[in-house]
Design goal:
This protein has 761 residues and is an alpha+beta fold. The protein contains 17 helices and 34 strands. A hairpin with a 4-residue loop joins strand 30 and strand 31. Helix 12 packs antiparallel against helix 13. The radius of gyration is 28 Å and the shape is globular.
């Protein structure tokens, strides 16, 4: 039995005594910022064999669900990270502010409450209810009251208690606010509170009263624009998610005053035939590539690959107005009808765009690969380059496939074929690495001139796409390796392994299909690839792919490295898109400073803020993904609003105890079927089988089922559609066992997979 801990925060045990599990948990609760294996061993004075015992004990506690490991730190399951973005929601009886995390997965249960301490820092002003803050949080250890105490690091711009809606004038002369959120009620506006809004305007309103009877009443605060205007649908998402979209005058002034970079301090790469390969409609080009056989006889069949990335750090200097705004935005946001850029066009589309035939500053990495795809070495260079050609993906692929055009024919032998030869080697290296291989088709919405949907297409996934993706992955790895080798802090792109809870849920589901998954095993991407290969070509292929995808964690940015599970890489950083991602700009500055490539490297002050910056840009990325997804939903709902009562072929994309989410594969958008409308049977939700089963028949509907549905209702501005099921329920594997599990109340609602899945890695 362990000796009782005494003294200090967590105290120390005498040498030769091992702590109990309760003492380990107590230390982690009281010391969230010192919760790694090394810190635990030091706290309890464990040495030699006792350290091996500690490692085994921590692994057992993870397997039993008592601990989770996040960025080399151990935490209790469902706990908050040390730095987190919070929304302040209320005050307690003593007047202290209470907050909850702005992002919290549904499958983690109720979001924890954080009690906000008064800040000791002059940097953070006192926040109020309704505001969003960045805070450091510490577990309280109390059985009652807030689970965490937080100290504010930064207060974001004040969020008004306002909602968005469409101003409508009805035939009787009254005014209503049509909701743009699915759960938002319709509102009534008195004439005195209508302001200068006209019917069809997107408006910002605040609720002024809510009587016992009738609809709540509201007041128009501001008119944001007319829905008849171009790009109106994306404007809803921009305002709903508080996405900065207007550059401050000082940032515009800095961009306009910027002068083209000179050769000072740069190597001359202008004779190297680097080329850009991008989508045909791309307006900025931030990466260029080149490959050639390695002339070194010691590396037979090897290749030298050069990836050049726009040198944004030369124009966006730390602490400038451009830099402050770029951090506030975090990344560019891509809608079907517009782009909200991270940087003004003068920077992103002009000075930093690697235009064909024009001198442009770049940060280049030259990598040497063996014939089997292993990277042997790499080096970074600050250069001046000149793009030899601007090609589109289909154009480059067509040349390789034997269909060169006037532009690609002269490039085929000297430039394109060496690129594809190098990619063949990198592909062998990728196969040996065994990253997670999930084929997720990306749909693209094509719009008419008036901003409405023309059609939805699934672009072909070409080798040209895969070539650029693999080259960029290797450049990102090289950046992380270089900075680690120089012992410099950086922002990593991390992707954690699936949590034990999600592994167990996946294991239960696979058991219903007769597919075993070892319990307590250290999951690797190859484990999932093996499952996917076993069902390839079977009736369960789509279903298993969906469930495996749902079991994965979400990628994020972090100043601490835990590796990238999906790519199966030990170290990974975003380096290749500084025009549209602030994380990449940080990595560029870190490389410039670490390698002595100029005076505009990462400062010590910004190095100390990397934890804070990582939290900010991770939140900005999630915000962008939600806004992009909601915009697609609204566009598709508006497109189908005239097709009420028509039938469609769909697929079950989500199952909850409330009903089924149905995706229309042709459009990539979801609608809902309430469980009450499924028929005469009483349907039970089985979480492990991802299905609804009839109580009497045992038949039902399961995730990924192909079904026929009728469209019965559309709310275009809310992006919502309601369907009626036309397909009969069917017998499902494991239905008896799953049904009884459901009756025992094990089911919890499961959120459907977000539409428009992104390949953001």
């Amino acid at each position: 039995m362990a000796r009782r801990i005494s003294g200090g925060r967590g105290g120390r045990a005498s040498e030769g005594f091992r702590p109990s599990r309760e003492e380990i948990v107590a230390f982690l609760r009281e010391n969230p910022d010192q919760a790694g294996k090394r810190e635990l061993a030091r706290a309890f004075n464990l040495k030699g064999a006792d350290r091996i015992w500690l490692k085994d004990t921590l692994r057992e506690m993870q397997d039993e669900g008592l601990l989770e490991k996040k960025a080399k730190r151990f935490t209790r399951p469902g706990s908050l990270p040390h730095v987190v973005v919070l929304d302040i929601v209320s005050r307690d009886a003593e007047g202290l502010l209470l907050a909850r995390p702005s992002e919290w997965p549904d499958d983690n249960g109720a979001a924890p409450t954080v009690s906000i301490r008064p800040s000791r820092s002059d940097r953070a002003r006192a926040p109020g209810i309704g505001e969003r803050v960045l805070a450091k949080v510490f577990p309280t250890g109390e059985e009652t009251g807030p689970a965490y105490a937080g100290r504010v690091m930064k207060v974001f711009e004040k969020r008004r208690e306002a909602v968005l809606g469409i101003f409508r004038k009805l035939q009787d002369g009254s005014f209503r606010i049509e909701p743009v959120e699915r759960r938002q009620p319709e509102l009534v506006v008195d004439p005195d509170f209508a302001g200068n809004a006209a019917s069809g305007d997107l408006v910002e309103v605040e609720q002024v009263s809510s009587g016992r009877y009738g609809l709540p009443r509201a007041k128009v605060l501001s008119v944001l624009g007319s829905l008849e205007s171009e790009k109106a649908v994306s404007m809803i998402a921009i305002h709903a998610h508080d996405i900065p979209h207007i550059f401050p005058p000082e940032a515009i002034a800095e961009a306009q005053a910027a002068k083209p970079a000179t050769m000072d301090g740069r190597e001359d790469f202008r004779d190297l035939p680097l080329i850009t390969i991008d989508p045909a409609d791309a307006k900025d080009h931030d990466d260029a590539v080149h490959a050639a056989p390695d002339p070194d006889e010691a590396n037979p069949g090897g290749h030298i690959v050069t990836v050049a990335i726009a040198d944004v750090a030369a124009y966006v200097t730390e602490g400038s107005a451009l830099d402050r705004e770029a951090l506030r935005r975090g990344n560019s946001v891509y809608f079907p009808d517009r782009v909200v850029p991270m940087l003004p066009e003068r920077i992103s589309n002009d000075l930093c765009s690697l235009r064909e035939g024009e001198d442009r500053p770049a940060l280049a990495v030259r990598m040497t690969f063996a014939a089997d795809g292993r990277k042997l070495r790499h080096s970074f260079h600050r250069v001046m380059m000149r793009s030899a050609a601007k090609l589109a993906y289909p154009q480059a692929q067509g040349a390789i496939d034997g269909r060169p055009d006037d532009r690609t024919a002269p490039l085929l032998d000297p430039v394109l074929k060496p690129l594809w030869d190098a990619y063949a080697a990198l592909r062998r290296g990728r196969a040996a690495r065994e990253p997670l291989e999930l084929e997720l088709p990306e749909r693209k919405i094509l719009l008419k001139e008036d901003g409405t949907v023309d059609r939805v297409v699934v672009p072909d996934r070409l080798d040209a796409h895969k070539l650029i993706e693999e080259f960029m992955i290797q450049a990102n790895v090289a950046a992380a390796e270089t900075l680690e080798g120089k012992r410099r802090p950086l922002v990593y792109r991390i992707h954690d392994a699936p949590s034990l809870a999600k592994q167990e849920s996946l294991r239960e589901f696979l058991a219903t299909l007769g597919l075993p998954l070892a319990r307590g095993a250290q999951m690797k991407p190859a484990s999932f690839n093996g499952i996917l290969s076993r069902v390839k070509g079977s009736d369960h292929e789509v279903l298993v792919n969906e469930v495996v995808l749902r079991s994965q964690s979400q990628a994020a940015y972090s100043a601490e490295n835990i590796g990238h599970f999906g790519l199966n890489l030990r170290r990974y950083a975003h380096f290749t898109s500084p025009i549209r991602r602030y994380a990449d700009l940080i990595v560029h500055r870190a490389l410039i400073g670490a390698l002595g490539l100029g005076k505009d490297g990462l400062s010590h002050g910004q190095e100390e803020r990397l934890e804070e910056i990582s939290a900010l840009i991770s939140a900005a990325e999630r915000r962008a993904m939600a806004a992009e997804r909601e915009t697609v939903d609204r566009l598709i709902a508006a497109h189908l609003a005239t097709r009420i009562d028509e039938s469609f072929q769909g697929r079950v994309s989500g199952v909850t105890k409330a009903g089924l989410f149905i995706q229309l594969p042709q459009y990539g958008a979801d609608g809902f079927i309430p469980v009450s409308s499924l028929g005469d049977d009483y349907y039970m939700y089985d979480e492990s089988a991802h299905a609804l089963f009839g109580e009497r028949s045992g038949k039902g509907y399961q995730l990924a089922d192909e079904v026929e549905v009728r469209l019965v209702e559309v709310a275009p501005m809310a992006g919502a559609m309601r369907f009626e099921m036309l397909s009969e329920p069917k017998p499902l594997p494991g239905s008896k066992q799953s049904f009884h599990k459901a009756r025992r109340g094990r089911a919890r609602a499961q959120r459907p997979l977000p539409r428009g899945r992104s390949r953001r890695r």
